[in-house]
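User: Assemble these into one structure.

Assistant: Restating your components, then the assembled model:
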Amino acid sequence: MAENLNLNYTLSKECLPVSGESQLLYTLIEIGAGQIGAATKGMPFNLALLLDRSGSMDGRKIENLREAVKNVVDSLSEKDRISIVIFDDEVEVLLSNQAPTDKAGIKNKIDDIIPRGGTQISDGLKKAIEEIKKGASKDMVSRILLLTDGETWDDEKKCEELSAEAKKAGVSITAVGLGDEWNENLLISIGEKSGGDSYWIEKPEDIMARFTSEVAGLRDVVATNLNVIYKLSKGVEPLRIYRVKPMISDLGRSVVGSGNISVSLGEVDGAVGQSLLVETILPSKDAGRFRVGQIEISYDVPSKGIRQEKIKADVVLNFSADQALTAKVNAKVMNVVERVNAFKLQTRALTEARLGNTIAATKKLQVAATRLLELGEVELAKTAKMEAENLAKGGSLTSAGTKKLQYETRRLTRKLLDEIEAGK
Amino acid sequence: MICPECKQENMTGALFCDECGAKLKAEEEPIAASAVSGNVKIVLKPSGEEISLPDKTEITMGREDPVSGIFPDVDFTPYGGDEGGVSRLHAKIVKEGDVYKIEDLGSTNATAVNKQRLSPHTPVMLKSGDEVRFGKVTFEFKAA
C-alpha cells in the first residue's frame, strides 16, 4: 500500500573522506504529500480568531479586519467550527465555538467590533484556547489565528507558556503582526512554541490576503500530528537541528535525546510540506559503508481514519579514500545550509543589538549584508547594511528593518526549495 | 578547516563558516544542475581583457568594498571600475534555463545594453555578443 506522505532525505555528501578525524554531516529531510493528493485535502477545521481591538486599531485597520473576518466566515463549510475572541486590556468572547450555520448573524456581530483600550494578549490567548478546545476533535485541524498591532504589557512569558500549552492540546497558533509597533520576538516565539507560524503585514489592506491564505493553508492540510525521529548510530552525535520549511526555525537542543533526535511538527500542509536540516558529527571511519541512522516519521491522516502511519528510511553513506568521490557536495543541501547560515547571522546580530553590544552587532550586520548579497537578496542586504549604518552612527535599529530581516530571512529556504521543486 | 575570511576553525565537512558564513572551500565545488555552464565570460573594451564568470545562476557585478561589506561576484576595481563610475552593487546577470538576463541594481551611473539604458531593477535579455556598459566601463558578453 502506498503511504500517504513522502519521506526523502539528502546528505551533504554521499561519500566522506577517510580523514582520521570526526566530520560534520548535514541531512536534509523532506516530507511532502505523496499519494494522498488533492482528494484528501479539504478536511474540516476548527478555527479560533483572536483579534486585537485596542484603540490603535481604529480606522482603516479595523475596517479591513472586519472585511477580512467576514470573508473568512463566508469561506467556511458547515463541518467547520469557528470561534471569535476579541481583546484589548479586557477579553470578550464575541462568538463561542460553533458550526457556522448562521453566517449572516455572525457577520452582524463582526460589525460590533469597536476599537478601545490597550493591548493584553495573554488573557485573550487563554480564552481562545478554551474556546477552541470546545470544538476540537482528532478529525480536525485546530488553529488560532492571532492578529495584533501593538505590544503587550508584561505578559510575554505567560503568552509563551500558553503557546506551549496550546501545542500540547494539538492547537497551533498563527501570530500576525500588523504595522511596526509590536514585538516580533514575541510573535515569532508564539508561532514556534505552538508549532505554528508568524507573519508580518505592513498595511491594513494586507489583512484580507493573509487571512485568505491562512484558510487556504488549513484546507490544504493532509496529515496531522507529524513526528520525526532520527535514530543515530553509535558514535554519531547530534549537533543542531533546524526546520527549513515552511520557515526556518532553530528547534534547539531540547529535541535531542540520548543519541536520538525527536521532533513533533504538527500539521502537514500538502501544498507546502515540511523540511528539516539536521547537523550531526560523524566519527572517523575506515573505507566502506556506514549507517548514519534511521529516520522514522509518523502521522495521522484524519480524512481516511488513519492513525500513526509510519515511514522509515535508512541513512547510509560511504567512507572512501578516493578524492574524486569525496569531493562531491550536494548542491541542494549546500544552498539550504547557506541560507540557514544567513538566517543565523542576522539572528546573532539582532541578539547582540538587543544586549546593547553595538560594535559586535554592527559588525555582524555587515557580515550578514555580504552573505545576503551573495544569495542575491539585494533588498535584504540593503536593509542589513542600513541597520548597520544606523548602529554605527550611534542610533538604534529601526523597527521595520528588524522585522524585515527576521521575517524574510526565515523564508529564504522555503523560497529556494520551492524554486527547485518548480524547476523539476 | 580554517575560514579564509575570519580565520575561524571549522569542523571538517562544514560547508560554511559558523562564525561569518563564508563559503569554506576545501574541495571542488559541485555543479548545480541549473547553474550557468559552459564558457561564459566578459571581454573588456578596448583592452580585450577577459573575465570568466563564476558558475552560478546569479552573478552580481560591481566594486568590492570591505568597509560596507559588499563583495560582488565580479569585482571591477582592477579594471578601472572606480574611475569608470561602477557602483559597488551595479548589476547582476541571471541565467534562467538557456536564457541570460541582466538587471541593473539601482546603480548611480546606470547600465546600458547595446547603448540602451536599462531602467533599474528591470531584467532584460542578454545575448552573446551584446555590448554592456557600466558607467564608463564597456564590455562584451560572451556565452559559448
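The longest helix of chain A spans residues 331-354.
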